[in-house]
Amino acid sequence: MYMSPWVILNDTGGAFAMGAIGGGIWHFVKGAKNSPKGERIIGAITAVKARSPVLGGNFAVWGGLFSTFDCALKGIRQKEDPWNLIASGFLTGGFLAARGGIGAATRSACFGACVLAIIEGVTFATGRFTSPPPVMQVPDIRPQSPNPQ
Fold first, then answer.
1. Measuring CA to CA, how many Å separate 41 from each of 20, 33, 34, 53, 112?
2. How many CA atoms lie within 13 A of 49 on its CB side?
3. What is the pLDDT of residue 106?
4. Has this prediction a pTM greater than 0.70?
């Protein structure tokens, strides 16, 4: 069974955590930089509390939609390959930009597909260059003794 709600929920939670943690670091630095000299830590913490959950939620929406499309494509196509991920990026980008009209949705869908194609290409190349070379089979050239019977 390809489409599992647990996979989608897990991916959504992971995307939220990634967005919230990355957003926490980003907004901490930004809040500290934009605060007056004596209140940098308080300004940084306030910025993190205000903006990190929002960024985490945005990541969770993207991750949940992407995982849903990926699981659906795996179920429809009955195979698991890079084309599912690229198509999922296309569908997610288009779906999230649909409110902006057909032009914005098309641009965003193409951008999503390109980003996923680049990620898949880098993953493929990295795996190919880091895998050990194939082991060469050496033929056994020793003379065979006759089978005693």
1. 19, 10, 11, 19, 37
2. 6
3. 97
4. yes
